[in-house]
Amino acid sequence: MKLSMIRTTLQFFAVLLFFLILFGKSFQLEAQVICGGAECSNIPSEYQLLGNFAGPALDRIYTNGFLRSMGENAVLQNLNANQSGGQNVPSYRLGLGYTIAKGQAKARDLYYENSELRNLPKEGVAASPSFSFTANLSQLFQTPYASRWNVTTHFFPYEFTEANIPFVKIRNTDVRGKIQNYGIMFRYFPESSGFSFGFGFFQTNQDLYLSSYDRRTTQFRIDGEKRRWLGINDLYYQSRISSFSFDVKYNWTIGILSITPGLGCVYNEGYTSIQVSRYAVISTRSNPDDFSTYPSVIGIRLATRYDHVSSFGYGSLGLRFGQGSFSVTTEVMAGREMQSANLSLNYQF
């Protein structure tokens, strides 16, 4: 049976999430299997291939720890994209930057070898540009106390493909998605101390779509009997995380250089949902290479939702090079299992 014929007869739709998430308070797996064709009578109803699919795809590859790491990467990236800095802005400031985050936690090496899903990445990452705006509250409230406060907001809707996200190279897989992150940070500067205290609210929204088709038939087993299948995989990942952060920073300024180390913590609440779909033609029981004698198709759909509450601490180090109204800023943030870096151009007026 020709590959082109198989691809046109298979109608596959699906969904998985990939970049992140937090501690799961609850885990629920929903699975549906539809089988059409003569060979379906040779598949025990209680088996239905779920043992070949559900475990490796959602347990061995995307463990709770890996999903948590992916989610925390996205949150740290969103925090770093705010670009609030550690110096009091006396009036207004605009900033445009790019932020990335990468975690150390990796998916297990037990990959789902029966389809192109084996090519999914091992590391969780998050990346996006961002636009920020900072205002000194004295511009809104004419009091001396208001001049000690800055408020910084950031937002950048970002649609991406594999070509414009770093670290992610998935062979034979179409990657696309969107990020809509935003946040607001209030920062207080005690008079002539060098310290500043910030607290903020952030919303991290991510959607990721992965789609692939098997380039070759692959083997699986049903009750010990060898079979082959050939199909399409669609994956959809969605995360919605609300965060509250608090940090303390100290600023040194030497000429055009400002150095700002800091410590912070963040509390997160939200969910991550995953949907995975696979449609495939299956071989006959008597001949693993025979797909045409008794044409049969099986469709599998799995869905999970992780409801989570988590928190983590991080350290930061910012460097600012300023001359006149313009400045270039870079800030690195690091938690126990993740790091984030931001580079931005700022204009103060």
UniProtKB/TrEMBL annotation:
InterPro entries: Lsa36-like (IPR058232)
Protein name stated in the entry: Porin
Top-level taxon in the UniProt lineage: Bacteria
Source lineage: Bacteria, Pseudomonadati, Spirochaetota, Spirochaetia, Leptospirales
